[in-house]
TrEMBL record:
Cellular component aspect of the GO annotation: cytoplasm
NCBIfam families the UniProt entry points to: argR_whole (TIGR01529)
Organism the protein comes from: Candidatus Hydrogenisulfobacillus filiaventi
Gene Ontology BP annotations: L-arginine biosynthetic process; protein complex oligomerization; regulation of arginine biosynthetic process
Main function: Regulates arginine biosynthesis genes.
Gene: argR
InterPro entries tied to this protein: Arg_repress, Arg_repress_C, Arg_repress_C_sf, Arg_repress_DNA-bd, WH-like_DNA-bd_sf, WH_DNA-bd_sf
Claim: Nucleotide-binding is one of the keywords in the record: no
Listed name of the protein: Arginine repressor
């Protein structure tokens, strides 16, 4: 029999490695690892770990509380960029994001919420966001990743 601490560590690892939509799916994965659990045990573990369901595409997946905010920020930015993005251009240690009129402020806030360590901060106008990146070497990669979210 696996103790609670070990089981919960395995649950955290599973949540980080793959999308898990239901308690049943989590129970099946644990059982496949030789750890049979009841629905009540899985439910209790989810509550104790503070797991939250976050939207991702057309589904919802369990996430650790410390990762849920980042997942939600990425999903929000993906939706926003799909609606308002005009262009993304690296320039020295900046990335310039052009949006439709009145789109820059919300995009700026969403970029700040990503928590990417390469990004120092953002500044928004009416239709332009300046993303300040730590170095000019990192700016093209940040621009590529931002475009990839759109």
């Amino acid at each position: 029999m696996t103790d609670k601490r070990t089981r919960q560590a395995l649950i955290r690892d599973l949540i980080r490695r793959q999308p898990i939509e239901t308690q049943d799916q989590l129970s099946e994965l644990l059982a496949a690892m030789g750890i049979p659990v009841t629905q009540a045990t899985v439910s209790r573990d989810i509550k104790e770990l503070g797991l939250v369901k976050v939207p991702h595409g057309n589904s919802h997946y369990y996430a650790l509380p410390e990762e849920a905010g980042l997942m939600q920020a990425r999903d929000r930015l993906r939706r926003l960029l799909g609606e308002v993005l005009v262009s993304v251009t690296p320039a020295e240690n900046l990335v310039v994001i052009k949006t439709v009129t009145a789109g820059a402020e919300v995009v700026s806030e969403a970029v700040d919420g990503l928590g990417w360590p390469e990004i120092v901060g953002t500044l928004a106008g009416e239709n332009t966001v300046l993303v300040v990146v730590r170095s000019r070497e990192e700016a093209p990669e940040v621009a590529r990743r931002l475009e990839g979210l759109a």
